Structures are given as structure tokens and as C-alpha cells.
């Protein structure tokens, strides 16, 4: 069962999300609409180009996981449209949605919770093929072995149960399951954040490799800026249910425009003690999505706040949702252009890298 | 390299599902639970082999042996119409055990589907099922069973149905609660993302994962059901004379409690031991199936 990759097709939008909203009612209202609602996702729009990797970042509680579930229709949306290959899937019934599920898949955050403890790896991996009636028993078994190979496991793992694997291996099984029905779009909801740092690297490399080999489009939800910078082509920054900035990765990291993105970037730890002076620390907590601030949602914590921000909500325009981004951009931001690296530091770093490689080899061998 | 090849080609040990083997390992280390299991198996064996084990016909009376105390010929004595108490006790185990097991099976068949539907779909379906369940639970178990048995008419089968219906609400509530916690698990979300139908999700993802607590509750409810059957038979609503059951034996024995106490003692002991066996087996199973306790 080969992956269908249409190379001749122009780079079309595989996913178009417009005005996506998800409001969770918190208390039952006597009058419809009278209850309080949590606006987890409140009017998010973006597109995903076929073949790219789009990252969605933001702190916990900003609605990024809800966004992932909305796109896959694991949660019903309140308003907005989600177009997959131009077809609006927001209002499809569960039954109409089912055939599309083979083409869009999800990788979950917690590899210990995302696999059914009572199914063997073979059952977990053949499940999507059985559901979508792909191949006969023998073909499914072959495909399963192929999938295990793709994610770096061996066919002899097939009859084991999830609890017999490590976190990294389980996440590989989760990835293999996501690939089983041959999807075009894979959404990773914090696919590596539950893993050990050394295993994170393996899984990230695996995802990138699979993306290249199978021609996948990835949407990666993450709060880890290092992961995002490494993997993605474009980055969307979310704050309190809104997309505040959407830009190509290199641009976003080089010159963040939204004040929130600037603060986020300055929070990335630098491996250079002399460059740590410019950290911009945000005051206060994220406001409750139960009662979001008026105007720009970031105005309660923004260091550049003005009167207009309190009343008028900025729209995402040319990749940033801020009234004054042009002025702010001119201000000295967190200085991410590293100073010339001293010779002594370079020597120390070379030594460290060498030791590190040796250590990795030792771990790999052992 | 050769080592790993050998390992790869060596026949894999037969796996019967991790849960069974792990549960068995942990159960084996729990002598109390094992004792419970042995008691239960012993009584089941007695019930199956009753005609072979019983020294006399359970329903044949004799004027020569009315209310005789235990002797070498009648180890547990004889009853008011001269029937061998031991033979009746052995044959009576059939009524008691089958009442316990079949009525719990009925309770599971009614309770689990309703509980799963209520928990999985929620909404008005849940509201209706839950309210009805609570209404039924408001009646004391035994009173309800007696009322239902009286309504259906006195027979062992009707007693089983009555007990099964009365015990069903426990399973509705347990299954519903378990489904509510299991259905938010990522693997259920994953199954939906893969495109599984609701029926498939319930069958392959929900039911296997709510099975352990249901199994524990079943063993405990079997004990309750055996007592309920004895109570109904004691009241004349269960096993009908002359066929023996432990409850109906107690019922007749109560009239001769001072003259022939052996008539009451043995069925009483039998009920106590088998209920005790099911209870400690259930407790042991609960400990062995609890994933939080990783001994």
C-alpha cells in the first residue's frame, strides 16, 4: 500500500481554518446563552500549505490542544469553518466524517494514555486498516511490519502490549498508528513534551524523516520553542484563544513583532551567560478565558500598552495582531544576535560536543 | 548478532493477555483470595457432581428416620420427613450456586448495557437511565427482590429473575461511572480519530477496560444473591418443595430448631462458607486488579 504523493500538484492549501471558535459552557443557564462560557478558542484563522510543517505555540491554557481537537473534529466546534482540501468538514456528521479520518491523523501528547492497554501492538496498528477496510489480513500484517520498521521497531514487537514498552517506544507506536491508514495531514499535540530530552530528539528526527519520505503535512502543537524552531516552516503564536502572530519560523525567531512573541522569545534560555541581560519578564498571570480582557487580550500584561489597546481588538493582519507593531518593532527588543563568540568559549564548546557525542555513542551501544 | 537472531527466531512464549497473567501472579501471592477461590471451586464441584456424591436420594422420605441426629449412616442427620440432610445439602448447592451465578448474569446483562449507554452518550439518555436506576436503588435490595418474586410467582427461575433485576442497578451505576472515566482517556479519543464507530469503540476500547471492577463487583454480588435466594426460598418464593435448597431447608428447620438443630446448622454453615468464599475471592481480585498497587 504505497503512499500517494502527487508531486505535480501545485502547493495547495490542505487545511483552511477560518473564524474557529470553541466555547465551553461552565454552568447551566436557565435562559439559553445566559450561562458563563470559557472561550478556549475564540476566532482563529490560518491555512496550512500542503507539505509544510506549521507549529502552533503558546503557554498552557491558551487553547492550542483544543484547536488540534477541533481541526480533527474530536470536539464539536462552536463556530467557524475548517476546510480540508477545500471541503468544509465543520458541519459533517460523525458518519460523514469517518472516511476523511483516514486522511487526517493525530499524535497524542501522553504515550502512556494514548494506547489501549488491552490491545497488542499488532491490534493497535491494524485497527485503522480494519476500520477503513484496507487490504486483507495478510496485507494488513505486511503493512503493520512495514510500519514498525518505519518507526524503528521490529516485527517481533507486534505481539507485545503497550506496558512492555518505554515512553519513547510507545510514542513510536502512536506515530505508527497515526500513519497506518496513510494520512496526508498529521497533527501532533505536544508529540514530544512527555518524553525525556534525549528521546525527544529521536522522535523529532523520526517525524521529520517520515514527513520527507511519506510527503506528509504536519501541524505541531508545542510549547517548546526549541522543538518548534528545529522542525517547523511557519509558526503561529497563540495567546488566550487567539492567534497573535503567524510568520515563517526564521522571521519569527529573528524579529518577533507581537509584544507577546517578543516576551516569549526572550524567555528562551541562552547557552551564553553574557547574553542574558535583556530578558523581558511579563507581569501578572494569563487572564481567565472565562472573562477575557476587552480590546486586545494581551493589554493587561503588555509593556507597550496604550489606550486604544483596551478598547479595540486588533485583527491578525500581515501576520501579527497588534495595533502598534510597527512602532514596537523599532524599539530595541531582546537582543538575539549573539555577540562574537570568544575563543575560550568556542574551545570549551568543542570539547563539550566531543564528550557529548562519545556519551551518546556509549548510551546507544549500551 | 547471533544472540539477537536466536532470540528473534525462538518461538515466543504463548501470551494469554498481560492482564490475566499479571493478575494471576498477584492473586497467587494472596493466600486469603486463594482460599476463597478454592472454597468457590469446591462448591461448584460439589454442585456439578451432586448425584455422585450424595449418599441418598435427596427427595426420598422415610418414616423410620424422622429427625435422627447425625449417625454413621446419616452424617448430618435427617429432617422432619426422614430425608438425609447431607444429600439435600449437596443437591441444594445446585439451587444456591446457580441462583447466585445466573441472577448475577441477569443483572450484568441488564445493568452493563444500560450503564455503558448512559455513560457513553450522556445527555437525556443518561438522565433517564440514571433517574430510573436511582428510583430502583431507593428500594432496599431484598424487599424489591421479594416483591418482584411474589409478583412473578414462586419458582426458582422467577426468584433468579427477581434477584437479577434487583441487583441490576448496582451494575448500571458502576458501569456508567467506569465508562465516564475511561471515555476521556486519550486512547478512546485516538480510536475516534482513527475513525472507529461508537459500537467498535465500546466493544474494543471501553468494555475491556471497565471489565476488572465489574468482575470484582460480580463476585461480591454473587454472595449477596446466594443469601437473597436463601431468603426467598425461606419465605417459600424460591425453590419449591420437595426439591432442596439451602434457604428452604432453613425454612423447614426453623420449626424444629430445639428438637433437631442439625437441620438448621448445616445449611446455615453452607451458606456462610460459600458467601465467605465469594467475598474473600472478590476482595482478593480487587487487590490483584488494581493497577495502582504494583506489588
Question: pLDDT under 50 segments of chain B (min length 5)?
Answer: 1-16
Largest sheet of chain B: none
Radius of gyration of chain B: 23 Å
- Helical stretch count of chain A? 12
Q: Which CATH architecture of chain A is right?
A: 3-Layer(aba) Sandwich
SS element count, helices of chain B: 12
Keywords:
heterodimer; A: 366 residues; alpha/beta; six-stranded mixed β-sheet; four-stranded antiparallel β-sheet; 12 helices; 18% strand; disordered N terminus; B: 295 residues; MetI-like fold
Explain this structure to me?
Chain B: It is found in: Cell membrane. Chain B: Keywords: Cell membrane, Membrane, Transmembrane, Transmembrane helix, Transport. The complex is a heterodimer of chains A (366) and B (295). Chain A has one domain (1-103, 181-366): P-loop containing nucleotide triphosphate hydrolases (Rossmann fold, 3-Layer(aba) Sandwich), CATH 3.40.50.300. Chain A is 35% helix and 18% strand. Chain A has 12 helices and 10 strands. Chain A has a 6-stranded mixed beta sheet, with helices on both faces. In chain A, strands 2-1-4-5 form a 4-stranded antiparallel beta sheet, covered by helices on one side. The longest helix of chain A is centred in the last third of the chain and has 23 residues, at 343-365. The relative contact order of chain A is 0.12. With 295 residues, chain B is mainly α. Chain B has a single domain (29-56, 72-289), classed as MetI-like fold (Orthogonal Bundle). The model of chain B is unreliable at 1-16 (pLDDT under 50). The chains are: A alpha/beta (366), B mainly alpha (295). At the A-B interface, α2, α3 and α5 of A face α9 and α10 of B.
Amino acid at each position: 500500500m504505497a503512499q500517494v504523493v502527487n508531486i505535480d500538484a501545485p502547493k495547495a492549501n490542505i487545511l483552511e481554518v477560518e473564524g474557529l471558535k470553541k466555547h465551553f459552557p461552565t454552568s447551566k443557564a436557565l435562559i439559553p446563552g445566559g450561562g458563563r462560557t470559557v472561550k478556549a478558542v475564540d476566532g482563529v484563522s490560518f491555512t496550512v500549505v500542503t507539505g509544510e510543517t506549521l507549529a502552533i505555540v503558546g503557554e498552557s491554557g491558551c487553547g492550542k490542544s483544543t484547536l488540534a481537537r477541533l481541526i480533527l473534529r474530536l470536539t464539536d466546534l462552536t463556530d467557524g469553518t475548517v476546510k480540508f482540501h477545500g471541503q468544509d468538514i465543520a458541519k459533517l456528521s460523525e458518519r460523514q466524517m469517518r472516511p476523511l479520518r483516514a486522511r487526517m491523523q493525530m499524535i497524542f501528547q501522553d504515550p502512556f494514555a494514548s494506547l489501549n492497554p488491552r490491545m497488542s501492538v499488532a491490534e493497535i496498528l491494524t485497527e485503522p486498516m480494519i476500520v477503513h477496510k484496507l487490504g486483507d489480513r495478510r496485507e494488513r500484517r505486511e503493512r503493520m511490519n512495514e510500519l514498525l520498521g518505519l518507526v524503528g521497531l521490529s516485527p517481533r514487537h507486534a505481539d507485545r502490549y503497550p506496558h512492555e514498552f518505554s515512553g519513547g517506544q510507545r510514542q513510536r507506536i502512536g506515530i505508527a498508528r497515526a500513519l497506518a491508514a496513510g494520512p496526508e495531514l498529521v497533527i501532533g499535540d505536544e508529540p514530544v513534551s512527555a518524553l525525556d530530552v534525549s528521546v525527544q530528539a529521536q522522535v523529532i528526527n523520526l517525524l521529520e524523516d517520515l514527513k520527507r519520505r511519506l510527503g506528509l503535512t504536519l501541524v505541531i502543537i508545542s510549547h517548546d520553542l526549541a522543538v518548534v524552531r528545529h522542525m517547523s516552516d511557519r509558526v503561529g503564536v497563540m495567546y488566550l484563544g487567539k492567534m497573535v502572530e503567524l510568520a515563517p519560523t526564521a522571521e519569527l525567531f529573528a524579529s518577533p513583532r507581537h509584544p507577546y512573541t517578543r516576551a516569549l522569545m526572550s524567555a528562551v534560555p541562552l547557552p551564553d551567560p553574557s547574553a542574558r541581560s535583556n530578558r523581558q519578564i511579563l507581569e501578572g498571570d494569563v487572564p481567565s478565558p472565562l472573562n477575557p480582557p476587552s480590546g486586545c487580550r494581551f493589554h493587561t500584561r503588555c509593556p507597550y500598552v496604550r489606550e486604544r489597546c483596551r478598547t479595540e481588538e486588533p485583527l491578525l493582519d500581515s501576520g501579527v495582531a497588534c495595533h502598534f507593531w510597527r512602532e514596537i518593532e523599532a524599539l530595541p527588543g531582546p537582543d538575539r544576535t549573539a555577540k562574537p563568540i570568544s575563543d575560550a568559549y568556542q574551545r570549551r564548546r568543542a570539547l563539550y560536543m566531543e564528550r557529548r557525542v562519545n556519551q551518546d555513542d556509549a548510551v546507544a551501544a549500551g | 548478532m547471533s544472540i539477537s537472531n536466536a532470540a528473534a527466531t525462538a518461538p515466543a512464549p504463548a501470551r494469554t493477555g498481560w492482564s490475566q497473567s499479571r493478575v494471576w501472579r498477584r492473586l497467587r501471592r494472596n493466600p486469603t483470595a486463594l482460599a476463597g477461590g478454592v472454597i468457590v471451586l469446591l462448591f461448584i464441584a460439589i454442585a456439578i457432581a451432586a448425584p455422585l456424591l450424595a449418599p441418598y436420594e435427596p427427595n426420598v422420605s422415610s418414616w423410620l428416620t424422622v429427625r435422627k441426629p447425625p449417625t454413621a449412616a446419616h452424617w448430618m442427620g435427617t429432617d422432619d420427613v426422614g430425608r438425609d440432610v447431607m444429600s439435600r445439602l449437596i443437591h441444594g448447592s445446585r439451587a444456591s450456586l446457580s441462583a447466585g451465578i445466573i441472577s448475577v448474569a441477569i443483572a450484568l446483562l441488564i445493568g452493563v448495557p444500560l450503564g455503558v449507554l448512559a455513560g457513553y452518550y450522556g445527555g437525556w439518555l443518561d438522565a433517564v437511565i440514571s433517574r430510573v436506576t436511582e428510583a430502583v436503588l431507593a428500594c432496599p435490595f431484598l424487599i424489591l427482590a421479594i416483591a418482584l418474586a411474589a409478583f412473578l410467582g414462586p419458582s426458582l427461575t422467577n426468584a433468579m429473575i427477581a434477584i437479577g433485576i434487583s441487583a441490576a442497578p448496582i451494575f448500571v451505576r458502576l458501569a456508567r461511572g467506569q465508562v465516564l472515566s475511561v471515555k476521556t482517556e486519550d486512547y478512546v479519543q485516538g480510536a475516534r480519530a482513527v475513525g472507529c464507530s461508537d459500537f467498535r469503540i465500546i466493544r474494543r476500547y471501553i468494555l475491556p477496560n471497565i471489565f476488572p471492577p465489574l468482575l470484582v463487583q460480580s463476585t461480591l454480588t454473587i454472595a449477596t444473591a446466594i443469601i437473597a435466594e436463601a431468603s426467598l426460598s425461606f419465605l417459600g418464593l424460591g425453590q419449591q418443595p420437595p426439591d432442596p435448597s439451602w434457604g428452604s431447608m432453613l425454612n423447614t428447620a426453623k420449626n424444629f430448631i430445639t428438637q433437631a438443630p442439625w437441620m438448621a446448622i448445616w445449611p446455615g454453615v453452607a451458606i456462610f462458607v460459600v458467601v465467605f468464599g465469594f467475598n474473600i475471592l472478590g476482595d482478593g481480585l480487587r487487590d490483584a486488579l488494581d493497577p495502582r498497587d504494583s506489588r
